[in-house]
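Q: My labmate handed me this sequence with no annotations at all. I'd like to see what the chain might look like in three dimensions before we decide whether it's worth expressing. Could you predict it?
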Amino acid sequence: MKAGYWSLVREGPGTRGAWHERGLAPARGATTFQGVVRGVLDELEERMNKMDQRKYNPDLFTRRSLRLPDRDYAATNAYFVTIRAKQLEPIFEAPELRKILLETWQALPERFHGVTLDEFVVMPDHVHFILWLDSKIENVPTLGSVVGAYKSLTTVAWPRHIKSAGLERSGLIWQRNYYERVVRIEELEKTRQYIRNNPIKLQTEMDSPHG
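A: Here is what I predict for the chain of 211 residues:
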C-alpha cells in the first residue's frame, strides 16, 4: 500500500473492538468504546439490518455547518468532522506530522471525559474523523472545544518538532474553521465507510492515467 494517508479502523466484523492502523503496525494502547456508545451501536446494528438500501451521497457529509446557535453541541451524538490544511498542499505526508496528528487524536479521551473515538483518517491535506460526546457525563465538552484543542495541540507540537529537528518548514497547519455534521444512527456505518474509502479513492485517482 502506497504512502499518502494514515487511517485507523476497528478489527473484526462488529462495530466494536481494538484499533489498529491500516497498512501499519498495530497501534499501542487500543481504544475501546465506552458503555454509553455500546448501547447505541447495538441499536445501530439492529436498525441497519432492517433499513432500506439508499444511494449514498458523500457530499452530505462534507458540507460546511454554520454551527447553529440553537444546537446543543454537547449532546450525545456522533459527529463527523473534517479539518483542512492551511494551504491545500500535501503537508500531512510528512511522517512526523502524521504521527503528531495520530497521537493527539488517540489522547483526546484522556483529556476530555465523555469523548469516545470512532473512525479516523489522515489524508495528504485534510483529516476526517467521527467522535462521540456523552451528555450524561458531568461537564462534557462541546464539539468546538474538542476540535479546538486538537487543532491547538497539534499546532504547538509541529513547530516544536520543526525547531528541534532543525527543519526549514512552515509551522502553520490548519485552516481557521472546520466542517462538521451530526451523524444519525442510520447514516453512521455509511459515514464510516466514506472515511475508509477516502484513501482508496485517492489511490485510484493517483493510479489513473488521467489523474
